[in-house]
Structures are given as structure tokens and as C-alpha cells.
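Support request from a user on the community tier.

User writes: "When I paste my C-alpha cells into the form, the page sometimes reloads and wipes my input. The last time it worked, I copied everything first. Here is what I submitted, just in case something in the input itself triggers the reload:"
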């Protein structure tokens, strides 16, 4: 008897945690959706508070496809932002630095020795 009580508590804990994950995913999706009016967002939140299981089920059925699209779009935007940040932090490539140094040499801003020094720094 004791074993089955523990097993049932674990089952309900998994169900409750799964519900919380779904609830947070729904709330995140509500605030991520720019096409949905603020009043409609408030209506969904009120229904999530007073009829949580039914509202979550209806939301996942009615708006589940759009939820996946918005999640993919948010992930792609985050990846693009991370790549742009990495490009910015990484600086110029060695060929870009050598091309800039060559332009300075042709303009007469730096000497041949300074160009050689900049080129060796870029290649190392």
C-alpha cells in the first residue's frame, strides 16, 4: 500500500509540473504575440486564472500552431542576435586588416615597415 501511495504522489507531481510548464509556455506565448490585442491577452490571463486546465487545453488546441511558429521566430531572432554580437566582438578578419593597412600604405599614411608590422600582426 505504501509503495502505491508514493507512486501516485510522484505521478501527480509530474502532472502538476507538466501543467506548470504548459502554463508558463502559454503566458510566454501570449506576451510574445504581437498580433494579439492587449485586451485579448488580458482575457486569456483571466481565464487561465479562473479555469486553468480548460483554458490551457483550449489555448493549446486553438493557438498551438501559431505558438510553434512564434517560438521558432524567437529562436531565430536570438540566434541572429548572438551571431551579430559574436561578429562584433570578433572584430575584423586578417584579410580585412591587411586590406585596411594596404589602403593606408597607398594613401601614404604609413610606411612600408609599418605596413609589414601590421601585416605580421594580422597574420599571427
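"...and here is what came back when it finally went through:"
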Amino acid at each position: 500500500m505504501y509503495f502505491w501511495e508514493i507512486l501516485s504522489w510522484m505521478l501527480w507531481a509530474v502532472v502538476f509540473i507538466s501543467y506548470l510548464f504548459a502554463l508558463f509556455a502559454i503566458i510566454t506565448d501570449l506576451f510574445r504575440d504581437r498580433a494579439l490585442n492587449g485586451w485579448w491577452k488580458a482575457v486569456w490571463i483571466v481565464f487561465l486564472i479562473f479555469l486553468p486546465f480548460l483554458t490551457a487545453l483550449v489555448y493549446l488546441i486553438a493557438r498551438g500552431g501559431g505558438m510553434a511558429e512564434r517560438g521558432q521566430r524567437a529562436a531565430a531572432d536570438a540566434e541572429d542576435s548572438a551571431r551579430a554580437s559574436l561578429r562584433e566582438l570578433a572584430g575584423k578578419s586578417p584579410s580585412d586588416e591587411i586590406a585596411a593597412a594596404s589602403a593606408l600604405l597607398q594613401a601614404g599614411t604609413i610606411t612600408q615597415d609599418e605596413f609589414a608590422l601590421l601585416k605580421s600582426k594580422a597574420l599571427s
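Agent notes: The reload is a front-end session timeout and is unrelated to the input. The chain has a mean pLDDT of 88. The chain is about 90% helix and 0% strand. Escalated to web team.
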